Amino acid sequence: MNDHPLHIGRIPPEQVYAILHSGAEGLASAEVRERLAHVGPNRFEVIDRWKLARTLGRQFTNFLAILLFVAAAICFIAHRINPGEGMGVLGWALVVVALVNALFSFFQEYRAERAMEALKQFLPHMVEVRRQRGLVRLPAEEIVPGDVVILSEGDKVAADLRLIDAKGLLVDNSPLTGESAPVRLVAQAQDKPLVECDNIAFAGCTVLQGTGTGVVFATGLRTRFGRIAQLSQTIRRTTSPLEREVSRMIRILTLIACTMGASFFLYGVASGKPLWMNLVFMMGIIVANVPEGLLPTLTLALVMGSLRMAKKNVLVTSLGAVEALGAVHVICTDKTGTLTQNQLTITRMVAPLTGAALAPEAERSLTRLALAASEVRESGEQLLGDPLDVAVARHWRQTLHGTPHEVRRQVARSFAFDVGKRRSGGIVEDENGPVLVVKGAFEAIAPMLAGVAAGTALDLREQVAACETVMRDMAGQGLRVIAVAHRPLSAAEVASVMPEEATAEPLEHDLLLAGFIGIEDPVRSEVPQAVARCHGAGIEVLMITGDHPATALAVAAKAGIVRPGETAHCTGEQLKGLTVDDLIEQLRQGVRIFARTTPEQKMKIVSALKRMERVVAMTGDGVNDAPALRAADIGIAMGRQGTDVARESAQIILLDDNFASIVDGVEEGRTVFANMKKFTSYVLVSNGPEILPYLLYIVLPVPLALNIIHILSIDLGTDLVPSIGLGQEPADPEVMLQPPRAQGQELLTPALMVRSYCFLGMIEGLWSLLLFFAVLIDGGWRYGTELAVDAPLHRSAVGITLATILLMQIGNLAGRRFEQRSGLDAGLFRNRFLLAGILIQIVLSWAILYWPPLSRALGTGPVAPRFYGLAWLGIVLIFALDYLRKRLVNRRRKG
């Protein structure tokens, strides 16, 4: 008795109140307040009071924000040197841009946080507690050690309880242990380690059957549930692929901007130009190189993607996960509820010797017997009790059109399911008298049999062997096999087991096997197609389950994860002896099924896959799954069956617990990344015509074709709506026929930069500058002549330059919709943001030339209609040259 240290599980029930300084009537209000102040609320998450502040601070410390603030500081310095150039106004404009970018991104992250909080509101957790003023229902957060809690069917245990009374109490401990088999709880003291005691109801678990009373001895982070929750929150989550790529892209663009700006600043100083002019020039180069509207567009694309995912039952709690899900190489999924319906269903009822399907009358008789050995009750249309018993009752109700109550009212005595004996029983009144029914595993019932079927020539041993063959065949099909046996009883035998403490053991002999019931948790109808889509997209699917290997392989075959007949798998026992390198070798050899595993072993599988440089998505619903959910690149929690801790540890929550929803999310994530490449390329193209005027201005004696205000009007004005439109483009039909992108695949590739800056950007720059000089020369300007920035001719030339860039971005917009196709299809007219963007660019291209209020604000002026017509020609020019490039690239690829 002294092998285990003294703990509350070893204390007799009658002493529990004294140990916890409580009483059968519960705690007084004053005592509750004192204990609540001492131990704190019954919460399972670590409250991070500075989370919002850190999130906000992060928006101001990325390279783009820092660059904009530094640029603003330079503008303020230039304003002090030469107050008449308007650099102070530009400085404040850059500060506003940085603030808007940061606050926009922060607001979207905050929205995601609030979405998670809103989800919690749909999961209220009330607890029935006995206190001195009587029985009350309270929020789970308000209970304290010493509270007396009443447990009933369907309740979620709110804290660690020491039971002092238990009547048929059956609890699902799978959120903590991963074991799907329910546990029968008792009130008697036990000489076991605390975590193995059957007199403890642990927080986070669910009551399946029966009632009980327990005294709280641990709340919040002091519970077993809470300790695991705290561990999961201390695991540092790796940054998402998109976060790493955006950070890299900003660094590259910042480096380009600063290098070009500094280089030409030094060139200006060396050539003897005034300091203020060199500062203005450097600022122009920096602002022209930095796509100020890119970050808000990226954030908005993720937000819109998350909203589309929500419509597909995929709730995103971290914006980076929107795109990250599209980058996954491996999805590690559990079985129950995700691949299957999480609803046990009777699919076969067979004769024990032959395995032949039973006739309707025999099926009805076998179901009636099984229902007599079940503990299930009806609450309206809902059936409550052990999931297996509920499956039997549902079959009686839906298939045989009976009412479970009509059978249960004839049951004289029930014997609850015993986990150790692996069987349950009941005594039911038949037309010929009372009958004992035993229901459970065939191995547990076989020693009690006197026969299987009347009139057979086989002896008992041969009958049992034939039954074992039938049972193994059914198990090999992924069925959970239940045997049902019975025998008539005398009145004396019935009387002998009527006392409550009596067991069925004295009666369990000379049984006749009535038949086998095959039960399965059917695979969701949409799962095989979803798995096939994953395979077509180059995504591996791994099943990690606590079930038997035969069941796991059968379900995996039905889901399409493995081929029928394939037997390669790895059990939890085998996993214990494998190093991570050994596990990697198993994965490379094609092992896709992990059976009889614990939630802790998921971490090992995640580590192995990450060592293989795979982006890993992991599903989970239990508390023990939380560390693995945080360790994976994308943690996916169940919204219906999952625990709060699992949901808080995940970046994605499946509102319908359906694997097919994950695949929909993958498609959406891939689409988001593809659209990001589209609008990144679109935005960078306008950098070319913005930079080129400054280069000519510093090298040649020509007027400046654009100033910084014009650049900002493009980047933050006219380019934003078209970029948003590209971010809303629907999924390409072939997006799920391509392999996942490699971890090193970049959003900002050398090829994209060359195409944007040196080809498309150069076309826009040359055509807009050609019209700039055409207007100047037509107005009488000659090369080398100085021209005041407020001269009408200069204002007109600047106006046509800006108008040309806006119009040519329309052609660029159509071309960016597809990598290889033209972009002029029906979808262009169904995307309202694209149409709105085109309309904005057309209207503004006219307004900056011919609408006095806007032309005065931007320092532009009108031009002759023929020049404006040539600006429209730029749309055709850039689109045609880009389409020709696409045709040449496609021809070279095919060759």
From TrEMBL:
SMART domains: Cation_ATPase_N. It holds the Pfam family Cation_ATPase. The keyword Nucleus does not apply. It is found in: Cell membrane. SUPFAM superfamilies: Calcium ATPase, transduction domain A, Calcium ATPase, transmembrane domain M, HAD-like. The chain crosses the membrane at residues 60-81, 87-107, 252-270, 276-303, 757-777, 797-813, 833-851, 863-884. Coiled coil: none annotated. GO terms for cellular component: plasma membrane. GO terms for molecular function: ATP binding; ATP hydrolysis activity. It comes from the Bacteria. Residues 7-80 form the Cation-transporting P-type ATPase N-terminal domain. Keywords: ATP-binding, Cell membrane, Membrane, Nucleotide-binding, Translocase, Transmembrane, Transmembrane helix. It is a multi-pass membrane protein. Gene3D superfamilies: Calcium-transporting ATPase, cytoplasmic domain N (3.40.1110.10), Calcium-transporting ATPase, cytoplasmic transduction domain A (2.70.150.10), Calcium-transporting ATPase, transmembrane domain (1.20.1110.10), HAD superfamily/HAD-like (3.40.50.1000). Belongs to the cation transport ATPase (P-type) (TC 3.A.3) family. Type IIA subfamily. This is ATPase, P-type (Transporting), HAD superfamily, subfamily IC. It comes from Desulfobulbus propionicus (strain ATCC 33891 / DSM 2032 / VKM B-1956 / 1pr3).
